[in-house]
Amino acid sequence: MATKPDLKGSSFALSVLHLTEDNVEDCLQFLHNKVEQAPAFFTHAPLVVDIEKAPQIDIDFASLRQGIVKAGMIPVGVTGCQTPLIKKQVTDAGFAVMSTSKSGYQAPAEIVPTKVVRTPIRSGQQVYAKGGDLVILNHVSAGAEVIADGSVQIHGTCRGRVIAGASGQKGAMILCDVLQAELVSIAGHYHLSDQIASEHWQQKMLVTLQDEQLNFDKIK
After folding, report:
1. Is this prediction's pTM over 0.85?
2. Cα dist from 163 to 59, 76, 77, 92, whole Å
């Protein structure tokens, strides 16, 4: 039986670019550098621009949107607009006007039973635990990606990309028996491999998010 279209609220993982000045060129160069560092993570990813702390007089929103597209990301909307005039400039440039809530950009996903994978995750594979935790009882190869709305546990060597709290859960954690990840991310906060301290490399590590920063604890 055919079903009718429906429109419902939902939550998605969105990267947020925080502007603190009205220099669009510098901002776009920063964004371009980030995409070059981790193209598999950022290319075609949706992006929200937060202008709450930026001077809202001379922002060229049209150039900003074009630059985001050129960098390889998808511009979604702008949040932090302070006046109706700014909101009009934002929509005229092709952005949506967005607002935040006290809980952040993402509503927590409903938690479901833990997803357990016993086989190795090989290069090019992606495993996603929607709405819950993910446990890998094996290795994660370079070029592979494991994602969970909750926490991620890897009982083996992790050489790929690990993304926890994909729907915004800041309390999510990452546990790796041997940390050699290309990228670790919790609720949109991430470290690339070259940002992980040498003393944490190839160690059993617990990664958490504290005060909007990733925290690495060695597990004995």
Report:
1. no
2. 32, 21, 23, 34
Can you give the pLDDT at residue 13? 65
Q: Are 205 and 187 in contact (CB under 8 A)?
A: no
Give pLDDT, residue 63.
Answer: 92
Residue appearing with tokens 């594979």: 125
Question: Are the beta carbons of 22 and 54 closer than 8 angstroms?
Answer: yes
Q: Could you give the angle at which helices 84-92 and 61-71 cross, rounded to 10 degrees?
A: 40
- Alpha-carbon gap, residue 165 to 108, rounded angstroms: 9
Q: Give the separation between CA 183 and CA 193, rounded to whole angstroms.
A: 6
pLDDT score of 109 more than 50: no
Per-residue pLDDT, averaged over 142-150, amounts to 93
Q: For the chain, give every domain's residue range.
A: 15-98, 112-218
Q: Is 141 helix (H, G, I), strand (E, B) or coil?
A: coil
- Tokens representing residue 110 in the block: 């409903």
Average pLDDT score over residue span 52-80? 89
Q: Quickly name the fold that domain 112-218 has.
A: Pectate Lyase C-like (2.160.20)
Domain 15-98 listed as CATH 1.10.10.10: no
